Amino acid sequence: MEKTIYTDRYKRLILQLKEARTGKNLTQVQAGKLIGVSRSWLQKVEGCQLRLDCCQLRTLCRAYGLTFIEILKEFDGE
């Protein structure tokens, strides 16, 4: 099985998050401060260099005005 971080599906999930962040007019620095992480951590996540766990995904969703269920439904519906 291929590592999920390298799949197109994972990349689409991360793109959804990035679009939600930019849609809120948040820079990586601002988003990082909002959730208590560094800009470099967020940059690695958005660059698909770090894989999110479900708790981290939920935190990002909330910061960007999404519900965890919304993003999972979109992800599952692809």
Task: Give a brief description.
With 78 residues, this protein is mainly α. The protein has five helices and no strands.
**Mean residue pLDDT:** 92
Q: Report on the biggest sheet.
A: none
What is the CATH homologous superfamily assignment? lambda repressor-like DNA-binding domains
Q: Under the CATH scheme, which architecture would be assigned?
A: Orthogonal Bundle
What is the SS-derived class?
mainly alpha
| CATH fold node name | 434 Repressor (Amino-terminal Domain)
What is the alpha-carbon Rg in Å?
12 Å
Find the count of extended strands (DSSP E, 2+ residues).
0
Q: Tell me the overall shape.
A: globular
Low-pLDDT segments, ≥5 res: none
Classify the helix fraction into a percent range: 55-70%
The SSE string, one letter per element, is: HHHHH
Residue fraction in strands: under 5%
Architecture overview:
The protein is mostly helical and 78 residues long. It has a single domain (4-77), classed as lambda repressor-like DNA-binding domains (434 Repressor (Amino-terminal Domain), Orthogonal Bundle), CATH 1.10.260.40. Helix content is 67%, strand content 0%. It contains 5 helices and no strands. It has helices at 8-23, 28-35, 39-46, 54-63, 68-77. Helix 2 packs across helix 3 (39-46). The model has no long low-confidence stretch (mean pLDDT 92).
Please specify the SSE layout and strand pairing.
Elements lengths: L7 H16 L4 H8 L3 H8 L7 H10 L4 H10 L1
